[in-house]
Write a structure and sequence with these properties.
Rossmann fold, six-stranded parallel beta sheet, 12 helices, disordered N terminus, carbohydrate binding, Peripla_BP_I, Ribose ABC transport system, periplasmic ribose-binding protein RbsB
């Protein structure tokens, strides 16, 4: 019986590797013209564009030591969920990076589907396949620790992207969520002139970035007269953002009950905007991510400020290639997180990848 259950799990994992799909914008890796501010060069002189969210100093540290076509092996990639534009964009940019820069590398890409059990099953499948390195956006912190221990026992190095796990890994590639939350808080203070009543729409309770963004936002509004009057979770889902905002508008029915909204992700913000439009309410919003739809919403005046949370590619792929070949990388590869408003939004359109 146990053998049949294992076979079913592995089959399900294999199906999820290739069956998921989501609409995302085209990858900036294919779209971008070579920009002297973001391009570095490989050992054989090939230009590598790490994008506008990767500092040039960090990019230089991620350049492999050998010509790119000399790198071989199998890389496993697991995104957190293809239900989110961020997950879809991560998958597309990972594929594009590997195909463009590492033509002799093999790779498999799996969809965690927002479930640590699913991610763990895919990890076990990858261990059985004998991958050389894993790039993963972990769904949850604590729940993924046992799977990380199995990767360690198998001698497979791990690069975390977007989120991290309290276990052994080589590096994490992401923007600093505490810093992002703090920038959002500071933008809120500026937006409201230092005082007001704010609702915070949080992500998923067990996700590391939810807690970090919440902590950062509290730091950003510290010393002001801004009060957070409600902070429900919406699991980084548009439908949940819509539902939670509808409930809040009923709970706070008067125009002066809520002065502004802080949303921890653009996906939830799209649902929040739906709820506001349906209720005929106009409430300022500070959001996080800077996905393309949110940048359009900034231009249209529906979002007042958004703090960028860039996709960790191509940096994550290059970090993985270097690690599997014994080359040094930083323990933390921090991406940039600018505040974007109507005054500078055009500079960032077309660069998010989702």
């Amino acid at each position: 019986m146990k053998g049949k259950q294992t076979a079913v799990l592995l089959l399900a994992a294999a199906v999820m590797l290739f069956s998921s799909c989501v609409h995302v914008t085209s990858s900036p890796i294919d779209q971008a013209e070579l920009n002297s501010d973001t391009v570095v060069f490989s050992a054989d002189g090939q230009p590598i564009d790490f994008g506008i969210y990767c500092d040039r100093t960090i990019a230089q540290e991620l350049v492999p030591q050998k010509p790119l076509e000399e790198y071989r092996g199998t890389m496993g990639v697991i995104v957190s969920s293809m239900r989110f534009p961020y997950g879809g964009g991560t998958k597309v940019m990972a594929e594009d990076t590997l195909k463009k820069y590492f033509p002799n590398m093999d790779f498999v890409i799996g969809n965690g589907d927002g479930d640590p059990v699913t991610q763990s099953a895919i990890i076990d499948d990858y261990i059985a396949k004998g991958i050389d390195v894993l790039i993963i956006d972990p769904v949850e912190k604590e729940a993924m620790v046992p799977a990380f221990e199995r990767l360690k026992d198998a001698g497979i190095p791990v690069i975390c992207v977007d989120r991290y796990v309290p276990a052994e890994y080589e590096s994490v590639v992401k923007a600093d969520d505490v810093k992002i939350g703090k920038k959002a808080g500071e933008a809120m203070v500026k937006l409201l002139g230092g005082s007001g009543k704010v609702v915070e729409i949080q992500g998923a309770p067990a996700a590391s970035n939810t807690n970090d963004r919440h902590i950062g936002f509290a730091q950003g509004i510290e010393g002001s007269d801004i009060e957070v009057i409600a902070a429900p979770y919406a699991d980084f889902l548009q439908t949940r953002g819509l539902g939670e905002m509808e409930d809040l508008l009923q709970r706070f029915p008067n125009d002066d009950d809520i002065d502004a909204i802080f949303s921890q992700s653009d996906v939830m913000t799209m649902g929040i905007i739906q709820a506001l439009k349906a209720a005929g309410r106009n409430i300022p919003i500070v959001s996080i991510d800077a996905q393309e739809s949110a940048l359009d919403a900034v231009s249209a005046g529906y979002i007042d400020a958004v703090v960028a949370y860039p996709i960790p590619m191509p940096a994550g792929i290059f970090a993985g290639v270097k690690v599997m070949n014994g080359e040094d990388i930083p323990d933390y590869i921090e991406l940039e997180c600018p505040v974007i408003t109507k005054s500078n939004v055009e500079e960032y359109k077309g660069h998010s990848g989702y």
